[in-house]
Structure formats: C-alpha cells, structure tokens
Amino acid sequence: MAATLTIGTLRLATNLLLAPLSGYTDVSFRLVARACGSVGLAYTDLLCPEGVVRENRRSMELAATCPQDSPLALQLYGSDPDALADAARWAEDHGVHIVDLNMGCPAEKITALNAGSKLLCDPDRALRIVERMKKSLRRIPLTVKMRLGWDDRSIVAAQLAPRLEDAGVAMIAVHGRTTQMQYSGRCRLERIAEVVGAVRSIPIVGNGDIRSPQDAKRMLDCTGCAGVMIGRYALSSPWIFRDVWSYLTTGSIPPAPTLDQKCQLMREHFRNLLHYRGERMAVLEFRRRATWYGKQMNPCRMLREQMRFINSLADFERAIEQFLEWRAGRVVVKRPSAIGRDMSDQEGDLGSRISEPGRSQ
User: Fold this and answer.
1) Among this protein's residues, is 105 annotated catalytic?
2) From 105, 187, 225, 300, the catalytic residue
3) Where in the chain are the domains?
4) Which one of 13, 240, 248, 302 has the largest count of C-beta atoms within 10 Å of its C-beta?
5) 259-295+300-327 in CATH: which number?
6) pTM
7) CATH homologous superfamily for the domain 5-250
8) Cβ atoms of 173 and 146 closer than 8 Å
C-alpha cells in the first residue's frame, strides 16, 4: 500500500526508495529522479570507507549532494569494522540522513574484498561490523541492504534479519535474489515475506524486478513489506516513482512523458553533470547514458548514434534537437561518422514538462 515510511527517527514522504546503483546513482541522476516526483529516499553509489575518510577525489564525487537531494542515505561497503565506523561518523558529520551498509552487491570486485554480499557468508562478522558502526553514530539511523544469501544452499536473510534488528539496524532492504543469481531468474517474493515475518518492528523494504506500478503493488501485497526499492528500471524511466505513487494512492497511472519531456530530463541530467563534474565528464557519461534513456524513446537509433560523437554541451544540444526533428519527420540526419547513410524518418511527439503528482524532496 502507499504510505509514509519511518526509519528510526526519519519520516519519509513516500515508501518508495531509489536504490544505490554502482556507477549510476550520483547526485546528477538523483536530482533528475527527484524532479519527476515521489522519491521518498535516495542512496549514493556504494563508497569505500577509506576513501571517504581520506576524502579522496573519487569518493567525494560519489558523496556529492545538495539541499535539493534530500533525504539521502550514504551507502558504504567493506569488511573492516573500524574503517566502516569511521566512515559512518564522517557521513553523519557531513549531513547525510542515513548510513547504509552494503551486504548485497554481487560484483566480484566487491565480494573479493569480503565485502558486499560476501558478508552473508559470515553472519557473525557482519554483526560485528553493524555493532561497531551503530556505536559510532550518535543521531542518524543505520540501515542494511542485503540479498537472500550467497546461493540456494545458504539462504540466510530471514535468520540474519532479527539479529541485525537486535544490533540496532533501523531498516533492512532485501533484494529477492542470491549472489549466485546475480540479476537472472525471478525475484523471490516469498523469501522477502519470510524476512518481513522474522523481524519484530523495523521496516523491511522489498527490492527486485520493479518495472511497473503493478510490480510495486505486487511486491507490497505479496510480501507485506513496508516499502519498495527501485533500481535499474529507474535509469531509463526516472518517472517510475511518480507513476507508482499515483497508482498506489489513486489507482491510476499518469500519462507517459512525451518525447520532448524525456529529452528535457536528459538536458537536466547533462546540466547537473556539467555543474558537478565538468563538461568532459558530462560528455563521457552521456555517451553511455543515452542508451539507457533510449529504452523508453524508441525508435531512437539516431539519438544513440549522435551521442556517440558528442564532445561538448553544444554537440549534446545539437544531438537532442536533431533527434526531435528526426522523430517529428521534419529532417533526415546523416550519421557523423558515415556521411551518405541516411536515417529513416519516424513519427514523434512534442509537449511540455512532466506533471509531478505526489512530488517529494
């Protein structure tokens, strides 16, 4: 059901959370998702605790935020209790609202460090880390994001969750897959329901396979969880939070953004990157991010082609304008690297900005 969500002493406006996604959920994208409406809480990319405490350049880029990017959870990964505790204290001192421990990342570069979902293989160590981190925090909640277990022979989420609750964790987000599954197979809602039933009072948030408002409602109905965390689908459809909240509160889904509105979101994202990372990084980011946005803008072959060759803000704007003209059937654009190969005409639509029912910051 649609509801507010309380995590420790922090009350969220909605029970919809933007997941931490390595390489994607920086402040530039978080601001785009928030602008579409109804994001109750967003997470940083996962951060190395040593880098946070040393304030190295890359960690500070990942930790960057602003007043509009609120409320915010900073996610840490690692296996050293003292390093994680120091980084948690740094996060609290720098104004984040929640510190989250990553116990769910299945990437080998993380699990090879005995971090991420590898912590599920050593629950006692995970508990020691949580206890040390909790002790370092004075005011803000500590939360955990985890998977069901390492593989089907070691499903530990329902057994570990009450121990985490006893250690002071204020909320647990559960991805309904094992590490071995990566992102294949179906999200196991029945296993998330087991975690919900295992804890006394802290909220459990369900994560996995949320691609529509109906999926979000199914997650809530089938598991009894208190909220929904949305990850990869938000990269191509950052308005998914708006749509889910509207569906949960009114039973209706707003009209999809127009092509022009989707392009405007891309423009806002690019300008955010300009502000926080500079033109060169904005260009490099959008050479790959155009493919994600394009998943909801088909036919978009021409846009993907043009974005491969951008080198500046001017190039980016030109690519957007040419794409809109191409989709409107008013122009035939030639690919920069192969003059002479025409793109086919396609119909498109134009419009104004996205409406924002249930918008929350």
Assistant:
1) yes
2) 105
3) 5-250, 259-295+300-327
4) 240
5) 1.10.1200.80
6) 0.88
7) Aldolase class I (3.20.20.70)
8) yes
